[in-house]
């Protein structure tokens, strides 16, 4: 039964990756070659399911670098728009996953000491469902708006948007790396 919930966890993580892939695809078109599309979808799994905890500077910066590489290689468009997509979505992905992993960790600490492995596996899988709901809502409600935004903005507007999101990115980076109490980081992640 534990194996079932572990497999279900990976399936739900794959659904999250699909939603993040579709959200990014509304801003930037994916390269047309089928191998590039498949690789973009598969590599999005690691981006959409990044594990972030407080004071985890290595994971945060390495995944940020990987996300820039991922967007640059697998998507079409100007570098400014690609960088804008990174600045917009990486803080969102990091914040959602930080909240999910840290709140899940706090719930795990509240479980009895000798908790059954099955119950632990069920809890771990169930805590991923709100993340799936968040990505589904962002994808569905933003689908038409994202497409029109990416068509309406010119280069100067993208740069102005970048400055706003760079501040958000730096703020999230600083708060995740220098705060010691996760409850102080929660409002900043929202």
The assigned structural class equals: mainly alpha
Envelope shape: globular
Total beta strands: 0
Largest sheet: none
Number of helical stretches of at least 4 residues? 8
SSE order, one letter for each helix or strand: HHHHHHHH
Strand content range: under 5%
Which segments are poorly predicted (pLDDT under 50) over 5 or more consecutive residues? none
Offer a concise description of the structure.
The chain has helices at residues 2-27, 34-48, 57-74, 79-110, 117-126, 129-152, 155-178, 182-189. The radius of gyration is 17 Å and the shape is globular.
Any overview of this molecule?
With 190 residues, the protein is an all-alpha fold. The protein has 8 helices and no strands. Helix 3 packs antiparallel against helix 4. It is globular.
Write the layout of secondary structure elements.
Elements: H1 2-27, H2 34-48, H3 57-74, H4 79-110, H5 117-126, H6 129-152, H7 155-178, H8 182-189
Features of the shown structure:
8 helices; 0% strand; mainly alpha; globular; 190 residues
